Amino acid sequence: MAESWDRSYDHACQSDESYNFERMHIEPIYDAFVCPLTKQVMRDPVNIENGHTFERGAIEKWFRECRESGRKPVCPLTLKELRSTDLNPSIALRNTIEEWSARNDSAQIDMARRSLTLGSSESDTLQALTYIDHICQKGRSNKHVIRNAELIPMIVDMLKSSSRKVRCKALETLRIVAEDDTDNKEIMAEGDTVRTIVKFLSHELSKEREEAVSLLYELSKSETLCEKIGAVNGAILILVGMTSSNSENVLTVEKADRTLENLERCEKNVRQMAENGRLRPLLRLILEGPPETKVSMAAFLGELVLSNEVKVFVARSVGSSLVNLMRSGNVQSREAALKALNQISSHDASAVILIEAGILPPLVKDLFTVGPNQLPMRLKEVSATILANLVNPGYDFDSVPLGPDHQTLVSEDIVHNLLHLISNTGPAIECKLLQVLVGLTSSPTTVLYIVAAIKSSGATISLVQFIEAPQRDLRLASIKLLQNLSPHMGQELADALRGAASQLGSLIGIITENTGITEEQAAAVGLLADLPERDLGLTRQMLDEGAFQLIISRVIRVRQRETRGGRHLTPYLGGLVKVLARLTFALPDEAGALALCCEHDLAAVFIELLHCDGQDNVQMAAAMALENLSQESKNLTRFPELPPQGFCASIFPCFGNPPVITGLCKIHRGTCSLKETFCLLEGHAVEKLVALLDHTNEKVVEASLAALSTLLDDGVDTAQGVAVLCEAEGLQPILDVLLEKRTENLRRRAVWVMERLLRTEEIAYEVSGNPNVSTALVDAFQHADFRTRQVAERALKHIDKIPNFSGVFANMG
After folding, report:
1. Contact (CB, 8 A) for 331 and 371
2. Which residues contact 181 (CB under 8 A, 6 or more apart)?
3. Which of 346, 405, 590, 676, by CA, is between 20 and 30 Å from 264?
4. Do 538 and 552 contact (CB within 8 A), yes or no?
5. Alpha-carbon span 695 to 510, nearest angstrom
6. Per-residue pLDDT tens for 438-455?
7. Within 13 Å, how many C-alpha atoms sit on residue 90's CB side?
């Protein structure tokens, strides 16, 4: 076979394939068939005046050049002048040439057929494919010849060749055969041809990928084939990947992109593209498609899983259109829009875009509407979910009107309606609407509106009752809401929890549930921790129910790492310690609290908790508890009983010496222990508290300084307290706190401690030379509250900055 192809070549012109095929003939070529000017077989032979025959296009060009050069027309062969440039078609010759060409083409096609088998040599197969390219490019009618010769399936078979060159050439030939020929494309659509072509998209060799995508682009021009291409598993995914690839050449990327543009004509393909990250076609249909298409595409958008970045893009692109669709009276349209909006509203940035697109008024209206036009309950649940998504604590909802009456989401009537729905719908909607209130109460700009509305509606008890809900999500939402409300409604919530119902027990049960630490547990203990710590009734009820024993057990297990932590560990432990600390506020009034503190050695527990670096709330609550415990030390210390004096010593004191008793606490002047009298000195807590005076959190510093202040309080040996602080190197940190003036509370506490320290002459003498201390005390004397100014005056007297006879303020103890 190869010899037949080779024998027909004119080797002098092998650089031009098209020319080679023109010179390749099975039957002998006659000189009369060849144009003297082009040296090729003529297709449209014409005669000139002297009878010579030329190709029409060639002789017309010759005459044109004669005119343009200013010469008279001459015969190209004889160079004799012609009187006329008229051309006469040589019909007989043309028919003869066409018959001769048809016989040759038929023979050559037959040769190509014999070469298009997997058993043929690579060179024969390539030559056959090249010939098919040639005749298809020579005339569109020849594509019909190729189709009728049933060569297309044979070319497709060449895609299975082991030769890379043959596979690439077959892809190229199929593209040429398919160009502008619908019938040929339909033949290629039969069987697994499209699937085979798609496989080439993931081949390692870039040339095969390039040819395959070019062929798919050509096939995708047929709407029938668009659906078939999209139906091939992975086709659209690979094409989308190619458009975003940095490793493909520019032409391949462009062809892949244009192929996808053609495939967009099929809605199934648009859905696939959206699933694989090419969202623009779907969004375009939502914006511009017919009504039924908008609805179906919006519904599909609601089923997609989108990244946060994509949610923002979608909100910007079609947010307004989806809001308009949601406003329509058609339930199907509203459902599709709501599902899409639910998907894209779950990111803060996209939620803001939707709010600005006007989503709130129709959304709230859908929630509150009752009667014939109301949404089905399943769609009200979606509406509630969207509203929960939209409530971003950083947004000013007081500035977004919901209608012509200028009400907003935080208006009293709107909040009352939300509370009514919370009490009268199913758990799913109740949970979402509670989350709405959680969002609104998380913002300092809106929380007071919600507090006022809850108080005016009398809904506190109803909200507290959700603590006992069987659904975990519903309980969590209610507990988080109550936690947000507790700084503003602490006493009301404490009263509600102390009621006849078992909500307090349920809350303790959630906190102490023997599981890994959950968000619900962290929120529950945070709520309990934020309730007024001096509410003795609540503390007594917790004592009666054994709550503190459970809390102590949980604290110990967390510290011993017996409980799995995670991201909720820090707030959970902080809440536990603060709840436990409330026990120390009841020490003066509740014997049971004192007994529990002694039994469980709570002073040691709180001292150990001072080491929780990085957990500010734990350290603050522990220091606060130690302050309360230390306040009781002077009342709990046991003073020694002195033996009675002898007879002589009672009459003549000079005959008796006072007994010497060792082992007494130098601060409390009695027998102290950490476990029973909570003595900070016995517990070696002073150094730890001093170390916390350098903490970055001023609340931790304030609590630590308050605990240390108990060593200088009335009722203890103040001089010894000063000595203990000096031994612990606490003087300079206390001075630093005074000089920094971080908060008014800290300054008040630091001035008080400083005045006690300056009662010691050595310290007063040392400090008097420090102008910064003097300045700080003078500033407090001039600008602080009345009580602090009075203490600052006494401190300034100690360092001789104010004469002792001066009395700006009346003594107040």
Report:
1. no
2. 140, 143, 147
3. 346
4. no
5. 33
6. 999 999 989 999 999 999
7. 22
Q: Report phi then psi at 456, rounded to 5.
A: -70, -25
DSSP 45: E
C-alpha distances (whole Å) from 730 to each of 425, 681, 769, 803 are 60, 14, 19, 28
Q: What is the 3-state secondary structure (H, E, C) of 376-436?
A: CHHHHHHHHHHHHHHCCCCCCHHHCCCCCCCCCCCCHHHHHHHHHHHHHCCHHHHHHHHHH
DSSP state of 249: -
- CB of 467 within 8 A of CB of 480? no
- Bridge partners of 742? none
The residues that bridge with 54 in the sheet, in sequence order, are 46
Per-residue b/e over 421-449, b at no fewer than 16 CB within 10 Å? bbeebeebbbbbbbbbbbbbbbbeebbeb
- Quote the pLDDT of residue 18: 47
- Pull the structure tokens for residue 234: 């992975």
Per-residue pLDDT tens over the stretch 615-646: 999 999 999 999 999 999 999 998 776 566 55
Element (H, E) at 322: helix 308-327
DSSP 8-state class, residue 443: S
Alpha-carbon distance 166 to 154, whole Å? 12
Do 689 and 610 meet the contact criterion of CB atoms below 8 Å apart?
A: yes
Instruction: Please check whether residue 508 is in contact with residue 518, taking contact to mean a CB–CB distance below 8 angstroms.
Output: no
This model's pTM is above 0.70: yes
